[in-house]
Every structure is written in structure tokens, then in C-alpha cells.
Inverse folding.
């Protein structure tokens, strides 16, 4: 069981979640760039070596070729999208919890927290899918050396011109497949660890900063343990030339397993896990700090 320290406010979750999301992007974008480049690098031919030998090699080559700015390529799209996305994500979680409560002080089970988290994954997909599509295209463009898109807005214009709104939302089903179960795991793990780390007789909202960072970081790791396989499929599908995968993610899955085996579904695993802890630790710390401020500034919101 998880003890709720006070009445749930989806409105406060909305604003605090937006701030947490901004903290997450600044902390985690460099390793997200590495992850996408590892996931989308072309398969080497016979006798050829891969473009990147692994996470460290990709990091070194990106720094050598593009400098520190290369690690932050494509960050404008998630920064623009991440504030409303995480605001909606935490709002969805707060709403999911509130809808399941019969009374404001009812303690929710971990199953109910998982279900509330799944609802947040549905809420965020409308914002997440186009933002992820643009981010992935800009990240691999920098790695390939070509310049097709001048920036996020140019990318949106070209995608719309080529394929209409469907081109911008390409990969939505895979984003749902990734985010719905992963979000359930994300929030359930955080609430569980908050309870575990709360000293006897104390409230979870009195947790120390190191405890919040640990709970948030581990929630990120559990989230990505569930999300990596559909994320690999999504990255490959969203960055493929138009018409390459006519049957959607099923074609991507068949190609990956046929050519590279089941292990290919965990491409970028190291980069994801290295990024997951600090990025999500920063996210939840930002969320908790903003929530405390809102509880002080607007207790009746």
C-alpha cells in the first residue's frame, strides 16, 4: 500500500510535472542522443566495422566530430514538447489516482497506482509521438552528416508537406505500446520506493533530497526496462524512409530479428540505463520541489 500525504490535486501535478520534465531534459538529453544514434546506425556489411562500437565510442566520436553541442542536437523539440508533455503525464497520473479513490484520504494499492500510471501514458502520447519523431530525425541527421532539416519547425513543415499530419504522427502506435506499460511501472515504482524509504512515523512528503533522487532514478530504470524493446522499434520506424515498412512495426520487428537477432531489441541499453537514473532523479526532484512550492503558495488549488 502507498500512503497519500494529502488530497491529490491533478492541477498541481500538471504544473509541477512540467517543471520536472524540463529538469529531466537538461539532465538526460546527451545520452538520449547517444541512444538514438546507436539504435539507428546502419548494419555493417561483410568485413566492415559498425559505425559505433558502443556507448563510449559513440560519445567520443560525437564529441570529436561535433563538440559538446552535438550531444544536445534536437533538444529544442523535446524542450518545447516536454513541459506540456510531463505536465499532462503527471496530471494524468494524479487524475488516475483521484478517479480510483472513493474518499480523498483513501490509500491506493500498487495495482491501482500502476493503472493510474498507464492512464498518464495514454495522455502523453498525443504530444510525445510528434516530438519524438522530430527529435529522432534531427539526431540521426547530425550523425549522418547530411542536412535535410534546418531545425524542428523546418522538420515539421517538410514532414507535413511530404505526408500530411500522418507523417508527423508516424510511430504513434509504437509510442503507445512503449509508454502505457512503462508509465505504469514508472509511477508505481516511485510510489513504492517512497514508501520503503519513508522512516516510521514520517510522511512521504518529508523525504530527504537523496531519497527522492534515489526513488526517482530507480523509477526511471524500471520504466526503461519495460520500454526499451518498443523504443528500439519506434526509433527505427520513425527514422525510416517513407514506405519502407508497409506493415508498420511488424515489419521492423521481423527485419531486426532476422538480421540482428533478439539482442537488437536492446540496442542502446547501456546509454538508456546510464541516462535513466540521473534524468529521472532530476525529474522527480524538480516535481517534488515544485509541488511543495505550490502547496505553500496555493494550498487550495
Amino acid at each position: 500500500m502507498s500512503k497519500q500525504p494529502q488530497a491529490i490535486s491533478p492541477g498541481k501535478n500538471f504544473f509541477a510535472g512540467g517543471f520536472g520534465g524540463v529538469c529531466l531534459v537538461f539532465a538526460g538529453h546527451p545520452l538520449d542522443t547517444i541512444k538514438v544514434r546507436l539504435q539507428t546506425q546502419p548494419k555493417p556489411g561483410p568485413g566492415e566495422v559498425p559505425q559505433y562500437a558502443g556507448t563510449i565510442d559513440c560519445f567520443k566520436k560525437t564529441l570529436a566530430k561535433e563538440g559538446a553541442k552535438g550531444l544536445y542536437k534536437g533538444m529544442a523539440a523535446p524542450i518545447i514538447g516536454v513541459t506540456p508533455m510531463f505536465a499532462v503525464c503527471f496530471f494524468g497520473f494524479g487524475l488516475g489516482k483521484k478517479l480510483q479513490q472513493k474518499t480523498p484520504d483513501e490509500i491506493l494499492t500498487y495495482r491501482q497506482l500502476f493503472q493510474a500510471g498507464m492512464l498518464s501514458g495514454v495522455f502523453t502520447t498525443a504530444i510525445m509521438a510528434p516530438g519524438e519523431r522530430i527529435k529522432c530525425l534531427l539526431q540521426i541527421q547530425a550523425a549522418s552528416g547530411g542536412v535535410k532539416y534546418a531545425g524542428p519547425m523546418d522538420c515539421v513543415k517538410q514532414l507535413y508537406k511530404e505526408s500530411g499530419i500522418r507523417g508527423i504522427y508516424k510511430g504513434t502506435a509504437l509510442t503507445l505500446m512503449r509508454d502505457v506499460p512503462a508509465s505504469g511501472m514508472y509511477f508505481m515504482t516511485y510510489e513504492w520506493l517512497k514508501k520503503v524509504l519513508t522512516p516510521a512515523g514520517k510522511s512521504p512528503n518529508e523525504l530527504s533530497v537523496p531519497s527522492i533522487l534515489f526513488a526517482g532514478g530507480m523509477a526511471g530504470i524500471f520504466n526503461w526496462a519495460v520500454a526499451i524493446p518498443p523504443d528500439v522499434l519506434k526509433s527505427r520506424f520513425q527514422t525510416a524512409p517513407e514506405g519502407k515498412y508497409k506493415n508498420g512495426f511488424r515489419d521492423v520487428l521481423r527485419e531486426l530479428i532476422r538480421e540482428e537477432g533478439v539482442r537488437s531489441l536492446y540496442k542502446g541499453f547501456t546509454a538508456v540505463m546510464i541516462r535513466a537514473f540521473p534524468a529521472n532523479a532530476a525529474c522527480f526532484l524538480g516535481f517534488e520541489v515544485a509541488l511543495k512550492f505550490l502547496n505553500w503558495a496555493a494550498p487550495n488549488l
The chain has eleven helices and no strands.
